[in-house]
Design brief:
Elements lengths: L2 H15 L2 H21 L11 H24 L3 H15 L8 H15 L7 H12 L5 H12 L1
Helix pairs in contact: 1-2, 2-4, 3-4, 5-6, 5-7, 6-7
Length: 153
């Protein structure tokens, strides 16, 4: 079952179960996906539509946004809003693949470097492209970049 279908099914189930918080988060996910669909209209990629990797990237950004918001709310003493953001993260993460551990991420970086034959820092873009192709939704690329840089530099 494609990721979009799983989200739609979960949305329907949440509606039937009258789970208001879960339903609102699932609607936000759906809206973000539809926004991306609309943005793709008129481009060469329109016929292909959004892949699961695109949907995973959208949801990954949603998680990061909510983490930043929760941190800001906690710093501002708005704990009820921070808890709401954290609850939304849990719903979104149900659809994301398991995140790689630190050691698994390091092994993935080493494998990507070997796969593209990277020799120096100028090959960093190739390595990052390889990682994004294989591990979208499974690793934090903001942390992977410095790892790649350290190994190539």
């Amino acid at each position: 079952m494609q990721l979009r279908d799983r989200i739609t099914t979960a949305l329907t189930d949440a509606m039937r179960a009258k789970e208001a918080d879960r339903l609102s988060t699932l609607r936000l996910i759906n809206a973000a996906i539809k926004d991306r669909d609309i943005a793709m209209r008129g481009t060469a990629d329109e016929a292909a539509g959004l892949s699961d990797a695109d949907v995973l990237a959208i949801m990954g950004r949603m998680v990061k946004q909510r983490q930043e918001s929760a941190r800001a709310y906690e710093e501002g003493g708005r704990l009820e809003l921070a808890e709401k953001e954290l609850a939304e993260i849990k719903v979104i993460e149900e659809f994301l693949p398991r995140q790689l551990s630190e050691t698994e991420a390091e092994a993935a970086v080493d494998a990507a470097i070997a796969a593209v034959g990277a020799q120096n820092i100028r090959d960093m873009g190739k390595v990052m492209a390889e990682l994004k192709a294989r591990y979208t939704g499974q690793m934090d690329f903001a942390k992977a970049g410095p790892m790649v840089k350290a190994r190539l530099g």
